[in-house]
Amino acid sequence: MTTMSPLKDRLRTDLTAAMKARDEVRSSTLRMIMTAIGNAEVAGKEKAELSDEQVVAVLSTEAKKRREAATAFEDGGRAEMAEKERAELAVLTDYLPEQLSEEQVADIVTKAIEQTGAAGEGMKAMGKVMGVVQPQVKGRADGGAVAAEVRRQLGGA
User: Fold this and answer.
1) Which of 26, 32, 64 shows the shortest CA–CA distance to 140?
2) DSSP secondary structure letter of residue 146
3) Disulfide engineering: 50 pairs with which of 15, 54, 91, 150, CB 3.0-4.6 Å?
């Protein structure tokens, strides 16, 4: 059996602490993320222990769900449900790598376009540029925002 990822171990320790402190939001959010990690570990043909990078991917997915749900609840006039989603998102954010700013994303995209020589190719170079950008921003920026920036810089906005 492989050893537990340090991030997963931290999540489990923090869950225990939150339960002892009777912090309902934190403990329910951490329980939910541990369940999501457990589901990811048993998905596929064989059970596998997730690496820190894979745990961050699960956290990013869950954070994205919370952002989208908060927006949907806000649009539907359900402010208290939107607030609950934002509280869960705040807990998840503690475990995610620091997010990149729009300027940092734009800078990474600019360098990737120069590196791939895609400057004059327009939108058909999108896949090539995204292939270079994605590993650099994984877990640290929203994929939709990154794709939008690549489209903008390639002239397809």
Assistant:
1) 64
2) H
3) 54
Q: How far is CA 70 from the centre of its chain?
A: 16
Could you read off the pLDDT of 38-61 as tens digits, one per residue? Answer: 998 888 788 888 888 888 888 888
CB 140 within 8 A of CB 98: yes
* CA of residue 125 relative to chain centroid, distance: 25
Task: Please report how the helices 143-154 and 102-116 are oriented relative to each other, as an axis angle in degrees rounded to 10.
Answer: 50
* pTM of the predicted structure, to 2 decimals: 0.71
pLDDT (tens digit, 9 = 90+) per residue, 103-115?
Answer: 888 888 888 888 8
Q: Which fold has domain 102-154?
A: Arc Repressor Mutant, subunit A (1.10.10)
| Residue in the structure block whose two tokens are 């939108």 | 123
Placement of tokens 């300027």 in the chain: 103
Tokens of 73: 């609840």
Looking at 3.40.630.30, 3.40.50.620, 2.60.40.1730, 1.10.1510.10, the CATH number of the domain 6-93 comes to: 1.10.1510.10
